[in-house]
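Dear support,

I submitted the protein below through the web form. The confirmation email said the job was done, but the results page showed an empty box. After a refresh the structure appeared. I'm attaching both so you can tell me whether what I see now is the final result or a partial one.
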Amino acid sequence: MKIDNDFDIDAIGDDHVSSSSETPLRKDAFSVSDSEKIESIKIDVKHILETLGLDLSDDSLKGTPNRVAKMFVNEIFGGLHPDKKPSASTFENKYKYGEMLVEKNITVYSTCEHHLLPILGKAHVAYISNGTVVGLSKMNRIVDYYAKRPQVQERLTIQIVKELQEVLGTEDVACVMDAKHLCVNSRGIRDIASSTVTSEFGGKFKNKETRREFLDYIKLDTEF
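What the results page shows now:
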């Protein structure tokens, strides 16, 4: 079976291809309620498990379709819904801090959109204020929001930077992410040692010296 531009679907799935920096959503993605989605997904999961030959009358399994459906809608794919987007309060930079601010080691829990397996890693995010600052926890929440959807790491990195650029009103935002993909670690090549590093540099971070400063901060030992 083929898709556009003659790439094989299975090859696309393993080659980490992304279509754009926007999450591909249908126009009617939110035309039904979360509770309706849960009911529909529950039926689909039940069918998958029964097709695999599992006995869903077993006490351990009979609640699995409902648990999986609720997890998909409310938790691991909760970042698809725009209503769950974190509000990012900004403040005037009254203390005139003019250097870069770096939030290191933000935990990333996401899901590979090709095999629906976990992506686990760390994001390092930085910005240089142009007169506005954002609460530190909001940077973590932005990472978490965009991570909670089917993703490819390249898109996730770009989305984090774009969102902070909009919130802060500046191009001077950067993100570096290092993550393990269980679609690589637990299946296919099954390379448990490898990880994937992506980056997106905006504004002043495109300057080699500024970028180097950011990367040097990431290397600092932060164990307390």
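Response: this is the final, complete result; the empty box was a page-load delay. The CA atoms of residues 98 and 129 lie 6 Å apart.
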